[in-house]
Design a protein that fits this description.
alpha/beta, Rossmann fold, six-stranded mixed sheet, four-stranded antiparallel sheet, 9 helices, 10 strands, 36% helix, 24% strand, globular
């Protein structure tokens, strides 16, 4: 029986950098097995929200609970923080692979150091996930020998090696050449189909429409619109969202009659 406790709950959360208010009272929840796409113009607070979900940024106000760990509690322990790090994986715009380590060694590092897995166990798991992302033959090569799309798939495999319950993606295709985007989105779509809880900050509107269960449109640190993917992406209520979708070259009418 699937756990009915939400994967993430956030209530009136605020985040500022000095005098700049980046998140201004955002609320919502994400269910287990759900894919949430977060869209909006640059600077609207999307990436900051995502970074709050794994405590790379600390909220200033509000309540934030991720995988039943209260990140807004003033006495959050290091043990709880370590547990969060193992349960929540994150894939960044830039791949953040260690250039001096082979692909296999990149994947084995955290499971051995953080989870205490044996070399053999970490090796077997790393090869399993490389196979899963279609890069089994790249185990012994170094990051500089990979294309951008291959590096991002390795980064996804590396996160999966920690057996996360939640995956966060911060514009994972924005640094890729257009012809390499599809191979990364295909891996993410497969994860979604397998029931992984995912929060995806993205400008890939077609991916959001086809894969996300819900979409939130952020503007100036607030949630301007939220709903199912068809509601938000094909029936926008505001002129601002319509203008944003047009800028993204997404045909708003598409799918209305599907």
């Amino acid at each position: 029986m699937q756990d009915s406790t939400p994967a993430i709950v956030f209530e009136d959360i605020e985040k500022s950098f000095g005098s700049l208010k980046v998140l201004q009272g955002i609320s919502g929840s994400i269910q287990r097995g759900e894919v949430l796409a977060v869209i909006g113009s640059s600077g609207c607070g999307k990436s900051t929200l995502l970074r709050c979900f794994n405590r790379l940024e600390k909220i200033n106000k509000g309540r934030l609970v991720v995988n039943e760990i209260d990140l807004s509690h003033p006495l959050l322990s290091q043990k709880q923080l370590r547990r969060l790090r193992t349960q929540v994986g994150m894939v960044f715009q830039q791949f953040n692979l260690f250039p001096h380590l082979s692909v296999l060694e990149n994947l084995m590092l955290a499971p051995r150091q953080v989870l205490g897995k044996s070399r053999q166990e970490a090796d077997e798991q790393a090869r399993f996930y490389l196979q899963k992302v279609g890069l089994a033959e790249k185990a012994e090569v170094y990051p500089e020998q990979l294309s951008g799309g291959q590096k991002q798939r390795v980064a996804i495999a590396r996160s999966l090696c920690m057996n996360p319950q939640i995956m966060l993606f911060d514009e994972p295709t924005s640094a890729l050449d257009p012809e390499l985007v599809g191979e990364v989105l295909q891996v993410m779509q497969q994860l979604a189909q397998e029931g992984m809880t995912m929060v995806v900050v993205t400008h890939e509107m077609q991916f959001a429409r086809e894969v996300a269960h819900r979409v939130i449109f952020m503007e100036r640190g607030r949630v301007a619109e939220a709903g199912t993917a068809p509601e938000v992406l094909t029936q926008p209520k505001s002129d601002r969202l319509r203008a944003f979708l047009n800028r993204m070259s997404f045909v708003v009418q598409h799918g209305r009659n599907n």
